Amino acid sequence: MAKVLSSATADTTTLCYRVREAMGIKQIEFAKQLGVSRRSVQHWESGEHQPSALAKKALLALAKKHKVDVPNRVITVQEHYTVEVEDK
């Protein structure tokens, strides 16, 4: 049976992959940029897990730096941090 992802999970999964692709790097290099393990990145991209609030903040910063569109559902990090993303 196929795994069904919530919209927010699917958006984060897509964002993670798009940012990494925009940077032109492999999962291990991307993980180092975010301060996490390659396995964490692998889990995020497959939708198995979501990034922590701190990792999501770093992911959003990289998205902004590399001009990757961020879905609205991913912008607010609810746990402890809020990330400001410039309007286009």
Strand content: under 5%
Low-confidence stretches: 77-83
Contiguous helical run count: 5
Shape summary = globular
Cα radius of gyration in angstroms: 12 Å
Question: For the record, what CATH class applies?
Answer: Mainly Alpha
Helix-strand makeup class: mainly alpha
Topology as H/E string?
Answer: HHHHH
> Gap between N and C termini, in Å?
39 Å
Identify the CATH architecture: Orthogonal Bundle
How much helical structure, as a percent, in the residues? 55-70%
> Would you report the number of β strands?
0
The biggest beta sheet is recorded as: none
Number of domains: 1
Return the average pLDDT rounded to an integer: 80
The CATH topology annotation reads as 434 Repressor (Amino-terminal Domain)
Task: Write a brief structural summary.
Helix content is 58%, strand content 0%.
Question: What does this protein structure show overall?
Answer:
The protein is an all-alpha fold and 88 residues long. The chain has a single domain (7-75), classed as 434 Repressor (Amino-terminal Domain) (Orthogonal Bundle). The chain contains 5 helices and no strands. The chain has helices at 7-23, 27-34, 38-46, 53-65, 72-75. The radius of gyration is 12 Å and the shape is globular. It starts with 6 loop residues before the first helix and ends in a 13-residue tail after the last helix.
